[in-house]
TrEMBL record:
<feature type="domain" description="Calcineurin-like phosphoesterase">
    <location>
        <begin position="26"/>
        <end position="273"/>
    </location>
</feature>
<dbReference type="Pfam" id="PF19976">
    <property type="entry name" value="GAAD"/>
</dbReference>
<dbReference type="InterPro" id="IPR004843">
    <property type="entry name" value="Calcineurin-like_PHP"/>
</dbReference>
<dbReference type="GO" id="GO:0046872">
    <property type="term" value="F:metal ion binding"/>
</dbReference>
<dbReference type="InterPro" id="IPR050884">
    <property type="entry name" value="CNP_phosphodiesterase-III"/>
</dbReference>
<keyword id="KW-0479">Metal-binding</keyword>
<protein>
    <submittedName>
        <fullName>Uncharacterized protein</fullName>
    </submittedName>
</protein>
<dbReference type="InterPro" id="IPR045533">
    <property type="entry name" value="GAAD"/>
</dbReference>
<dbReference type="GO" id="GO:0016787">
    <property type="term" value="F:hydrolase activity"/>
</dbReference>
<keyword id="KW-0408">Iron</keyword>
<comment type="similarity">
    <text>Belongs to the cyclic nucleotide phosphodiesterase class-III family.</text>
</comment>
<dbReference type="InterPro" id="IPR029052">
    <property type="entry name" value="Metallo-depent_PP-like"/>
</dbReference>
<feature type="domain" description="GTPase-associated adaptor">
    <location>
        <begin position="398"/>
        <end position="457"/>
    </location>
</feature>
<dbReference type="Pfam" id="PF00149">
    <property type="entry name" value="Metallophos"/>
</dbReference>
<keyword id="KW-0378">Hydrolase</keyword>
Amino acid sequence: MFLLILIFWSDNWEAFTKKLWDYLSMLLLHISDIHFKSPECLDVHQDPDRSIRTRMMRDLAEQVKEHGNVDAILIGGDVAFKAAKEEYDTAWNWIQELALSSGCSKKQIFVVPGNHDVDRSICKDQVPTQSAQTMIALARPNEREWRLKQQLEHEESGQSLLAPHAAYNDFAAPMGCQIWPDKPFWHQDLDLGNGVKLRIYGLTSTLLSGHNGKDDVKGSLYLGPRQTALDPEPNTVNLVLVHHPLDWLVDEDAVDDALSNRAALHLFGHKHRQRAVMAADYVRIGAGAINPSRHEQPYQPGYNLLNLEVSGTGQDRHIEVNLMQRRLQDAPERFVAIANMQGGDVFRASIPVPEEAPLPNLKVASPAVGEVETAIISKDLASVVSEKDAEAAMGEPNTRDLLYRFWQLTSAQRRKIAQDLNLIEEGEMRLPEPERYGRALIRAGERSLMNEVAAAVANLES
């Protein structure tokens, strides 16, 4: 009997260890610059870029056989080419194909905007948008942060600044990755295991993109400190997903310092150049374009696979990072591995994530006489903490499933749910839907009403 068990065990050892590895690690697919361009992309038989995307999917399917299913897809911007609705509709169909071929749930897809996700015609033709961008772009360095805050907090200017992202926001809302004036970036949590959370920050480098309808100039874009606060919570690994690399930002040095100190993983797009910096405390990765311009030289479509595994305990706990970069070669036309300096196929890093005690819970007691002002400040702080946690929780699988189902309802059905549960505040009905219901869903999380939202969605689906 023992011999039979041993034979069975040895025959299945490879499959067993592969399943165990898949369970203990997280595989991320990092892609960028897909550039769905209409009208060409609307006909699969005449889309000159379709073949490259198909080859990429087939190569990815082979990688999945070796490394396991993809757990999340991170898209670094430039999904569209001119921010047209039909480009996003076509892109979404392909992205679902990509998820299916990689074994990834379509609910585990995250995205940030790129410069091609900005409607430049709005930047060119709408004076309020021109004015908002110009006020920030021409501000003195010591006033730029204040100017951005001023424009975002002004009701009309804030909406004007985000207006060129309207089609992107419609596309991104089911993923919980839309942006609005007082939330120009998003963050969501995934469970890495072993007591560690992966917090994905989707930053927006495109608030000034398309200024006056023109191409962006290197060094002219702006993130600002509110996007790089990146709260270093205990037992949390911060991953930053952003379209533009640092040298495209006017606040390059400040952003570099913030990311280097507060985030372990930095993922960029835009340049169409695959690069990897495997430092002691962080990993910085550039994505190749899935579909660069066919006139671009060298023409090198590419994608990244990033495997994360938490190992060790206590002060010796680390996150092991294995990066595999794949690039198209032209003859024969197929994707191949980019070699590291030692000739291997994997770039490796080990980043310390020592175990830390959780922060104390914030408790707000009823104020005693003479303590009213302090209590008000504490309640405001409690609200901020609650909102942050509610948005981060959008990364949970059940919640992401609910997001997709909610956004598949009609506009009238979404409105009914939000109003029935009192999730819409005064004046919010005039906001764009991605912002209106994005606020409502976060509010539902803050008020512990997500089960009620789920029940209402299920009732309308039946």
